[in-house]
From TrEMBL:
Residue intervals passing through the bilayer: none
All copies of domain Nitroreductase, residue ranges: 2-45
GO molecular function: oxidoreductase activity
Record protein name field: Nitroreductase domain-containing protein
Species: Kingella oralis ATCC 51147
InterPro entries cross-referenced by the UniProt entry: Nitroreductase (IPR029479), Nitroreductase-like (IPR000415)
């Protein structure tokens, strides 16, 4: 997260990525078993301005005793 915030402060855009082919990544980057890859972060300059993901308030989708209202 700190990397992504620092990149944004420097004028870059980032996006976290999961669901990639780990075996292919490890082979291409020649990663030893010592390292654990958990995600990729793409870094660059966007061709267009994007939009922030809209999130619902936690109270709208969670409840302690029953269903959310």
């Amino acid at each position: 997260m700190a990397f992504m915030l620092a990149a944004e402060a420097a004028g870059w855009q980032t996006v976290p990525m999961t669901g990639y082919r780990r075996d292919g990544l490890r082979r291409v980057l020649n990663l030893s078993e010592r390292y654990l890859d958990v995600m990729l972060i793409a870094l660059g300059k966007g061709a267009e301005h994007g939009h922030r993901t809209l999130r619902q308030d936690a109270a709208a989708v969670s409840a302690w005793d029953g269903l959310p209202e």
